[in-house]
Specification:
Length: about 350
């Protein structure tokens, strides 16, 4: 009996050693602590890159009334991630569930689906990260896995595919100029191209060691055909920077609620923005002389409830004007003269709005 007990103990001990070895091998157990480095990026020490501080530190809230007009819900879009609107108030929604861009009328009728295979494998979208709607209803889509920019006609066919000089994360089109924004790691944030794909210019340096810590420069681009310019909004930096179509800076200003540059955590060589960082800009759009910015709060709060305050700025110099509160929390908002589009995790809603009397 004693021999049998010893044999059982040897089996259990051997099994325990094997499990322990497997645990270390696949990462369940480790005696090596994570290497975490906390880096505080800084703006380049140049006078022109010092963002202008707003004339007031407090928001000026105006009240509006909202009336729900149209809801595009989960029966037609499963996972909306990016929303655009054209000059006729049609709505374009990138649905992450099937990686298609779906076009809806102002009343919510489905008009077209872009990114399906229609005779060319290049018309199929693999992982689009941004798109822009041209004045004639054509789409310009950046699709990093294909390392291409795809122009799609209003009928859904591919007009051309462009191969940019550098990787592209965001895109907008103004007149006959294509503006791209790079993902983290690039020395220059922006590149300009002709609509035929001819490279024109690289520019856009904001922080020291930008290739190393450019992750904090994630943000949005919005084109302005009327003023022949584009505006960059820093998601974490809380800066608004306007540029002419030849790349000359017209202004750089801080948003009304802006903290210092966020810290970058480097965890075993992998970079991420510190989770407690402020989300200053979720989305932007321009109407007439005004720039509308949907602002957030902390990253964790944005993940839970998203933004609900829209801050309004002068599009020519970035000066803060006033703010208003939306009827719902959302990830993205597009403001028009008499309506608002809001995008949440599951639906897009069109609201009619007007100043409260």
């Amino acid at each position: 009996m004693l021999g049998s007990l010893r044999q059982d103990l040897r089996i259990l001990l051997t099994a325990g050693l094997i499990l322990a070895g497997l645990s270390f091998a696949i990462g369940y157990v480790t005696d090596t602590p994570l290497t975490i480095v906390n880096v505080q990026p800084t703006f380049l020490e140049e006078r022109r890159l010092a963002p202008k501080t707003q004339h007031t530190k407090n928001r000026i809230l105006k009240e509006y009334t909202f009336q729900r007009m149209v809801i595009i819900d989960s029966t037609r879009i499963a996972k909306p991630i990016i929303m655009r609107a054209d000059i006729t108030d049609n709505i374009y929604i990138l649905d992450w569930a099937d990686l298609r861009i779906k076009l809806f009328s102002p009343t919510g009728s489905l008009l077209n689906i872009f990114g399906e295979v229609k005779g060319s494998p290049l018309s199929r979208l693999l992982n689009p990260t941004g798109f822009s709607v041209g004045l004639n209803g054509e789409l310009w889509v950046c699709d990093p896995p294909q390392r291409r920019i795809i122009q799609i006609t209003p009928k859904g066919t591919v007009a051309q595919t462009l191969i940019p000089k550098s990787a592209v994360d965001r895109i907008t089109v103004v007149g006959d100029t294509l503006i791209t924004m790079a993902p983290p790691g690039a020395k220059f944030l922006f590149e300009l191209y002709s609509l035929s794909g001819r490279f024109l210019k690289s520019f856009g340096e904001f922080i020291e060691d930008q290739p190393e810590y450019g992750i904090v420069l994630d943000g949005e681009l919005v084109g302005d055909n009327q003023a022949q310019q584009f505006i960059y909004g820093g998601r974490y930096t809380g800066i608004l920077a306007g540029y002419s179509l030849d790349g000359e800076q017209r202004f750089i200003a801080r948003t009304i609620k802006t903290a210092s540059l966020p810290k970058v955590l480097i965890i075993d060589g992998r970079k991420k923005v510190e989770p407690s960082s402020t989300i200053a800009i979720l989305s932007m759009n321009i109407v007439d002389d005004r720039l509308y910015v949907l602002s957030g709060s902390s990253m964790r709060a944005v993940e839970k409830g998203q933004g609900q305050i829209v801050d309004v700025y002068n599009k020519f110099n970035g000066t803060y004007l006033f703010s208003f509160q939306l009827p719902v929390a959302c990830r993205q908002a597009i403001i028009r003269s008499d309506r608002v589009y809001t995008l949440t995790e599951s639906e897009v809603t069109v609201w009619r709005f007007e100043p409260k009397t």
